[in-house]
Amino acid sequence: MADSPDFDTSVPHEARVYDYWLGGSDNFEADRALGDAMIAAIPTLPVMARANRAFMERVTRHIVAEGVTQFLDIGSGIPTSPNLHEIARAADPDARVVYVDYDPLVARHARTLLKDVPGVAYAEGDLTEPATILADPLLPATLDLDRPVALMLVALLMYFPVDRRPERWVTELLDALAPGSLVAISHPSADFDPEAVAEANAIANRAGITLVSRTRTEFETLFGPAKLLEPGAVPLVTWRPDEPVADPNAAYYYAGLGRKD
C-alpha cells in the first residue's frame, strides 16, 4: 500500500496492526514491526485476531436470527470482507448497518466500499462522544430507532483504561436505543496468560497505543444496563461455536451478548 498524505505511516496504528494480523494489505512497516514485536510475546496473536473476527460473524448471524436486523457498529476498523453488513444481509437482505469510526484511513476505505450500498452508512464518530454519534443525521436516516438495534463493540473497549469508565459510554448509547436492543462485546483478558498478555500490552503502550486487558468480572461491567444472555461472559471461541472447540482458551478474549430491557 502506498503512503498517504492523510496520516503518518511512520507511527503504528491499532487498526493497521490488526489488519496485519488478519493478513490484510492496509498496513505499513511501523505497523508490521509492532505487530511482530507483540507476536514475539504471544505467538498466536494472528490466530486470536481471526478468532475475534469469527466471533463477529457468529454473533451477527445470531442477532439476525433473534429478529434484530439493525446494527450500529462502533470502532468498525478497516473494512475486511466479509463485512458485518454482508454477513447480516446473507441472513436477512433487509438488514441495515451504520458503521462508526474516527480514523481517516478507515473513513477512506469505508466510503469507497459503501458508496452505492443502500441501507448501509459510514459516520465519523468516537465512542468517547456518544452524544455526537447519536446526533448524526445518518443514524435516523439509516436505522429505525423506534425498533431494536444491535450495538457492536468488538475488540474496541480494550483501548480504554478502567479509570475512563467506558461502560458509561455504553450506557449512554443503550439508553438512546429501543427496548430489546442488543450489545455485543469482545475484549482481551490476562486471565488466560497473565505474563504474556502483560508483556504484549507493555510493548503496545511503549509504541503509543493504549492497550488494556480486563478480568471476567471487569468485562461483565462493560455491558452497563444490558442483561447478559446465554451463554454469558465466556472465552471467545466458546461463544456459540459453529463446531466443537478443541481449546476453549485458544484466544485470550472474553465475549458476550447483552439485551436492554
From TrEMBL:
InterPro entries: SAM-dependent_MTases_sf, SAM_dep_MeTrfase_SAV2177_type. The keyword Methyltransferase applies. Transmembrane segments: none annotated. Pfam families: Methyltransf_19. GO terms for molecular function: methyltransferase activity. The keyword Nucleus does not apply. GO terms for biological process: methylation. Keywords: Methyltransferase, Transferase. This is SAM-dependent methyltransferase. It comes from Actinomadura rayongensis.
